[in-house]
Structure formats: C-alpha cells, structure tokens
Design a protein that fits this description.
single chain, alpha/beta, Arc Repressor Mutant, subunit A, D-Maltodextrin-Binding Protein, domain 2, 2 domains, two-stranded antiparallel ribbon, 12 strands, elongated
C-alpha cells in the first residue's frame, strides 16, 4: 500500500482532539499523559497528512483553523463510537451473563422478541444485544444465538424449532367484521412486503386461490412498516400470524375467518458454542421456545371475526 493511501494513526487523531478540547498543546498532552513534544509531533504528522494547518498559533495560545474545526467535528463522533464499541465488546468478553442474539427476522425481533426480552434478562440477571443481518453467518461472526427462518447454520451446537409459520389475512376489526375473504379481496387492496415476495404466492396456493385475484396496494420493505399501515386501514395484509398476535389481542387488528394457511416455513433458534456462554445461550433458546408456545396459546384464544 502506498503511504498516501494510509489512514492517519488513531493516536494522532486522539491527540489532536485533546489539544482542541483543552485549548493548548500542553494541557492536551497532560490530559493524555504524554509529553508536550510528543503531542506536537502527532499534530505535525496529522497536518502533513491533511496538507494544511489545524491550528493558528499565537504564542502559547492556539485556535482551530477552518480545516481544524471541520476535522474536529467529523472525527469526534467517530472516535467516540470506536471507544464505546471497543469498551462494550471487551465487557462482553469479560461478562459471562451477556449474549449477542443475531436474527434475519427484524419484524419478529421488533414485534415478538424484544417486548418479551425483559422476562429473560430479569430471570437470568443478564443483558442481551439483538442485531439483525440477512447475510449468511460466517464462522468468524461474533454472536451466541441465531434466530432465523431462511438461513442454514452449520456451526450450531443445537437447534430448536420455534414456530411453524402460519399466514393470515388481517385488517382493522371494523373492516374485517362479518365479511368473507373473497369479499374483502374484492373491496380492498393487499399491502405488499418487499422482503417477503413469497408470501402472497404461498398463501394463494394454500387457499386454492388464483394470484390474479389479488389487487396489490401500498408497498413496504418490511412487515414492521406494513403492519401499522394495516392497522390504519391502508389495505389488507397477508402476514405471519406470530407477528401480529399481540395486536390482535389488543383489538387493533382482526383475522378474517378462514384465512389461516401454513406457509411451509419454520423459525429456528441455533445456539453457538462460545465456551462459557453456551449454557446461557441454550437457556435463552429454551426460553424462546416457551415464549413462542405461549404466543401460540394466546393465538388460540384470539377471536377470529366470522364472515356473514
């Protein structure tokens, strides 16, 4: 790599920000526990890299130049992020009662997992970070549990079945009440979800219905965006039932009678062998299975509005 392609040393940026914050090279160096001459060398190296002065020097007083002011604004947040993330990741390594849960199901995480998560963290005196990614996991990826529907993971120590996905047609109760699915589809468009283009074909096949009967309406990237549109009557939504059970229980959505259909998809949790976190990860997976079963029992008690 050519020298002009290299990024400036992180320590030089730290010194620059300390000097800018303290208002002098002497005080900035003291705040970092280095010598004044060492701080001056870092500043000079950074100025040589940037090709311009970072400070106006007036005797012992210094003042940021326009370049220095802009560089300070842009680099301070980045450095804070690096330092915070580094401390947090080091804390995870040092703390057995912490988990990173990765999922390819952002709406499941948003609507089902995260609202129930305090029940697990309180009972296990732990904390859980939830991250989302649609990429196929690699052996070097840092996570303890994988929750997914469509990603295969071969590095797991154990796998748990969470949900046999069922699709339902939902809308506001006032719209759904006493109307057949066929009547609803004639009068209202169906909201499309870009991240699940398979849902409408799967549902219509299971319902023995022509896809041509579906009049598509608004389009959203994910179900967590489409669900609020359905609650406000912007269209019908064909959705995995596990994602809307709580909204149905709250009376914000209703299921059209006869609209349930199996998609043929399953949700799984995988625990990953990360040494001392394996037991906690397996406890989390068992808790997640129990939580999903509880949701399904709640679903069994959910009122499906009859057609007239």
């Amino acid at each position: 790599m050519q020298s002009h392609d290299r990024l400036p040393p992180l320590n030089s940026i730290r010194v620059f920000l300390a000097v800018a914050r303290e208002g002098s090279v002497t005080n900035g160096a003291a705040s970092l526990g280095i010598t004044q001459s060492g701080a001056s060398r870092h500043i000079a190296a950074l100025e040589a890299y940037l090709g311009g002065q970072l400070f106006h020097r007036r005797g012992r007083e210094i003042e940021l130049t326009e370049i220095g002011r802009l560089y300070s604004q842009e680099t301070q947040d980045a450095l804070d992020t690096i330092e915070f993330t580094s401390r947090r990741m080091r804390q995870k390594d040092d703390t057995p009662n912490s988990l990173v849960v990765r999922t390819s199901l952002p709406t499941f995480a948003y609507a089902t997992l995260i609202p129930k998560l305090p029940n697990f963290t309180a009972s296990h005196s732990s904390f859980v970070d939830v991250v989302t990614s649609l990429a196929t996991p690699k052996p070097t990826d840092a996570f303890d549990v994988l929750v997914t529907r469509d990603l295969e993971y071969r590095g797991a120590s154990e796998r748990w079945l969470l949900v046999e996905e069922q699709l339902v047609c939902v809308g506001p109760p006032a719209l759904i009440e006493r109307r057949s699915v066929g009547d609803l589809l004639k009068s209202k468009p169906v909201i499309s979800v870009s991240s699940r283009p398979d849902i409408l074909p799967r549902w219509t096949r299971a319902m023995d219905m022509s896809l041509g009967r579906i009049r598509t309406g608004p389009r959203y990237d994910h179900h967590f965006l489409a669900i609020p549109a359905a609650t406000t009557g912007q269209g019908l939504l064909i959705v995995p039932e596990i994602l809307v059970i709580d909204l149905i229980a709250q009376g914000l959505l209703a299921i059209a009678e006869g609209s349930r259909a199996k998609s043929g998809m399953q949700y799984y949790a995988y625990s990953v062998d990360k040494g001392r976190k394996l037991d906690l990860g397996q406890s989390f997976c068992r808790w997640l299975v129990k939580m999903c079963r509880t949701q399904e029992r709640k679903d069994d008690r959910t009122k499906v509005l009859p057609e007239r």
